[in-house]
Amino acid sequence: MRILFCSSEAFPFSKTGGLADMALFLPKSLKQLKHDVRIITPYYSQISKYHQEMKFLGSSTIQMGGLDTIVNYYELIYQDIPYIFVQNMHYFERDQLYGYNDDAERFACFSYAILEGLKIFDFYPQILHLNDWQTGMVPFLLDEHYRHRNDSYYSIHTLLTIHNLEYQGSFDPYVSRFFNVNFNYTYIHFERVNFLKAGIERATKINTVSPTYRNEILTGEYGFTLDGALSNRQHDLVGILNGIDAHVFDPKTDPLLFANYDSTGVKDGKLKNKEGILHQFDLDVDLKEPLIAYVGRLATQKGINLMTDILEEVIYHSNARFILMGSGNDAYQDYFRYLTYKYPKRVANYIGFNEKVAHQIYAASDLFMMPSRFEPCGLGQMIAMAYGSLPIVRETGGLKDTVKPFNQFTGEGTGFSFSNFSSYELKEKLFEGIYLYKNKKRQWNKLVKQAMEQDFSLEKMALAYEQLYQTIIGV
Ligand code: ADP
After folding, report:
1. Which of 86, 121, 239, 323 fits as disulfide partner to 211, beta carbons 3.0 to 4.6 Å?
2. What's the pTM value of the predicted model, to 2 decimals?
3. Whose Cα sits closest to atom 19 in ligand 1?
4. Considering the domain 2-243+459-473, what is its CATH architecture?
5. Which of ligand 1's atoms lies nearest the C-alpha of 21?
6. Residue 182, pLDDT score
């Protein structure tokens, strides 16, 4: 099959979250299944360091709402996959990926550039695989402006993957001018232009990144006002669990760790990593005490307020260490700085993004918190399990689909979970984890082994997408 994976971020060139990882992992695994897959993504400023390795493919003029702008296409082969970068200095060469006043215009331009580009690089995919709101307008633009042009455009099918329904690309109605059509209800939602809604209405099929989240978004509680639009298309909506790259996230070979280990030598291996990271963060080194960690965005979605409600109590009443890594909301950042200030030898924070330190934290920690309010899939908990750090999660979305809660009677489980969005329940699970770590070593070690043996492989994920593509094109 010919597949063009369209993503506003792609690891290792640009990344703000899980979508970037997926933009490398899925195409790579599809390639192993012998599909002809390419990635198209914007050329952000930081990508210029790869410029020497790129090949110029051509240019096209994008016309949107009376604005004409030129985009250049460059290709770079990375890990055997062709990456096509869409270059437009005005729109994409900025410090950040998103968050600008003209984001609607920027990603309208990217969406046109995808469709215009097909004839430039003469690659008409059977599946245009779109991701999130940034490419949500593509099916609409395809229908309105491209399908009638020739058979190659006519027979393109689209799949829209929703990685996070909270971010919808909702803009002032004047934005509709960029689509070169009169006002159209496909993309209007509560009197605003909504890129994601357009994708939901027009894509051939839609999927989210876990089966539980697929069901949750049909409800008012998790639907972020799009539950109606999604319910109308529920027969075309599926849930496919993300996977993680077993080669990148393998404590046995990970070059970023203080020491490598596998499930047979996990105890010693983790202790060495714990020692390393505690030193690195200038914390008291006491290897008998559990290390609790969080790595991820400091956003409301992640249930950070549950942590800020109870962490101090947990730190006060235990001897656990806690390391937080992430950035985002200022108030949350300030809280973790405060906690570090108050417990300088037991609490540390790293406000920022750092791949290496993140890996080290996964390997060193014993408990990994993810009490999300909602979680489309979540990679953090899967990575934690791969490194033998037991996740404490709320039973929602992908967290529910991936973490088997500890059962004290049977010894089953790969982590701890609670159901209500309650700081009290999170606190209970933290104390349960700390207790088990310190007092029930046999049970603890068994859980760690079970967690490390979980299969969240990309192969499994790629096979599920392959099957979905086949359904879409009717093979
Ligand atoms: P989301 O996509 O909602 O941000 P996920 O759990 O799906 O959350 O994916 C987040 C990914 O980004 C994980 O691979 C996580 O390890 C990584 N990550 C998040 N914050 C940081 C950080 N500050 N430094 C390094 N890696 C991070």
Report:
1. 239
2. 0.92
3. 296
4. 3-Layer(aba) Sandwich (3.40)
5. 14
6. 80
